[in-house]
Amino acid sequence: MSDWDDDEVNDSDDDEVDTWYEMDLWVAVGVWDEVNDSADNEVNDSDDDEESDSDNDDEEVTQPASEQEGDQHPEVTVSAFTETDQDGEELITHYKPPSLPKVTISAFTETGIAESSIIVPLQRAYTGRYPVISSRLADTPSATLGVQGLLDQLNTMLGTSYTLDNQFLSSLLEDFITIDYDFGLIYGCLRGMWYINDWSTLQDVLGRRRDKDWEERRDALIGNRIVNPNLRPRHVWDLCSNRVVPLWTMVNERKYHMRSPWPQPISHAWVDEKDRAVVWTPINGYQWPVPIPKDADLNLIRIEMLNLGLEYAWLDVLCLRQVGGPEEDLRIEEWKVDVPTIGAVYQNGGDVVCYLSGLGRPLRLKEGDLESDRCWFRRAWTLQEYGSRRTIAGDTPDGQLHVKLTDGTLETGLLLNFKRPQQSMSFFGVLKEMQRRVSTNPVDKIAGLAYLMHCKTIPAYYESQSLEEAWTALVNSMDELYRGCLFSLCPEPGNAGKKWRPSWDQVMMKPPPANDLLLSNIEVDRDETRDEDLANYADCIEGLVRGLAVVEEKSPSLASWGTIRLGELIVKDKDGIEHGFEIIATHTYPIPEDTYTLIDARSDVFCPSYGWIVGRSLPGGKFEKVSVLEISKTEHDRLEDLCIDEEHAYNLI
Predict the structure, then answer these.
(1) Cβ atoms 523, 631 nearer than 8 A
(2) Which residues pair with 313 in a beta bridge?
């Protein structure tokens, strides 16, 4: 990992480059030699007049297609939008690109495979107006093209007629050649900045973007916690250039405010290792190996994504540094932040494109696949990848998406249901679903829950962390109400670490609460400084619990409540008179007969019963959980009439 010079990026000696190409790109766009002011004025005279008229994002302006007199191209009337920084300061004006001619790339030109042999129709060819370049052109070394050749190709693809008289542009292209970029990476880095009003400001604008992105990643991790769960991804796959580029090179035609739009995510389940190939590809600059199915091809996946309307995509194997590359230490550092925030891409990136039979493969779900550990529906990571809307990739004319539901197969019914909008699962519904899922690294099941828990902060990712350490870090980051659910609804005390909530082993091995409709309103706060979990403003009573110490093998049950055990609660009113109340346990954990402190979980008023946490008050304001029980609304109203509850604040152990 290389260090930045103090006068280039930041005053700190510890500031470091995040990615393999960002240092080189910074050399090209951040510190090129100064060009004299007279040349600046000569190139940008016409632009200065236009800049004052382009304050509004949607204002129509006339932008010459070329800066040179005698240009053969007519003037193009386009809309403009002004990029601003976080303080609203105007940085640069972008002109919307002219209407570009259609381009075509095909499976044959990209891979040498005949289109007729490609099973997935959308992988055969793409024809459209995205400024897509061929892989052959993308792979061309910039030195082979030279400065004029580079500019000619850029002008051709982007519908402009810039010349090397623009000394800022020519200097930039020369620097790209010096650092030995291929055309694809140059194209990917520049096409989002190609239609601008003032090339002399490009150095400053790109520098601010890069700095802002770097600062957000630096500030996102405080200690072992990510304070910005919605951090955008570090890299994106630019499908037009077929290159992985920094997020900050993206631009959208809306108010920018120094933030890039989200790339559209691709979801897939990794195939078995024996069916997997490790590919070294120029798409990511050969910086880490890309594991894909042996019968898949990244160039064909690209064609399918373009046909589905994607321009920028996020694919883990390409955009997330993988194991086996030359910079393993850098991968470990990046994964601390990049892995926990994967969920944000799938929740914010629009339609999720899903390969359910393996990356790039045709959709083929056969009997038994749904029980396979490699099935998309059984992988831990894909639980957070549902998104609000989904597009199934790998479709074929005779595939299961075109079979009527009347065929009666589980696989077909599942696919049709999968395409429909999904309602979010309950807190315990998410935990229950994770029970049946698998991951190569067991700690990934915990990491895959972080975004689904809607935490304000999420734990950093440590692949060698113990399961209980990772679970504790996640619980400590949860919302107070979710922590309250673990406290008030889980019937057993924790058997590792804290007793007030279940251990990770209990979460995965024990059935979820039978009546999680109670939706406890009790909150468990967190004091990080003192490492304490607090139940503040808890309404408590003291009483004798009996009748729940024995669990019979065959207990009566209700379909919606599960196992039901009946017991009795004895309390004394203010005059010392005893009163008895019927209590219910909807679980099989025994509660020994004893006098306990009971905390009212203040369940939702629409529920048929109310939850109580059973435990013991200990010296120092501590509370030790024993179990939970319920009481019907009628009995609860009788109990409230006694007015014997007291408010306490407890430190939960």
Answers:
(1) no
(2) 237, 264
Query: Helix count (H) and strand count (E) of the chain?
Result: 19, 26
Tell the residue number behind the tokens 């996020």, with chain if given. Answer: 314
Q: Amino acid identity of 261? A: P
- Report yes or no: 239 and 66 within 8 Å, Cβ to Cβ: no
Contact 344, 231 (CB under 8 A): yes
Instruction: Specify which residues 458 forms β-bridges with.
Output: 226
**Paired strand residues for 647:** 539
Residue 604 domain-assigned?
yes
Structural domain total, the chain: 1
DSSP state of 204: H
pTM, rounded to two decimals: 0.84
pLDDT at 608: 67
Q: Strand 103-106 vs strand 125-128: parallel, antiparallel, or unpaired?
A: antiparallel
pLDDT in tens, 524-567: 999 999 999 999 888 999 999 999 999 876 544 433 345 789 99
With respect to residue 26, please indicate whether it lies within any of the assigned structural domains. no
Q: Are 271 and 320 in contact (CB under 8 A)?
A: no
The first and second tokens of residue 452, run together, are 């689904």
Alpha-carbon distance 480 to 458, whole Å?
14
- Domain range for residue 637? 533-652
Q: Does 343 map to a domain?
A: no
Domain membership of residue 590 (yes or no) is yes
DSSP tag of 318:
H
**Where is 422: in which H helix or E strand?**
none
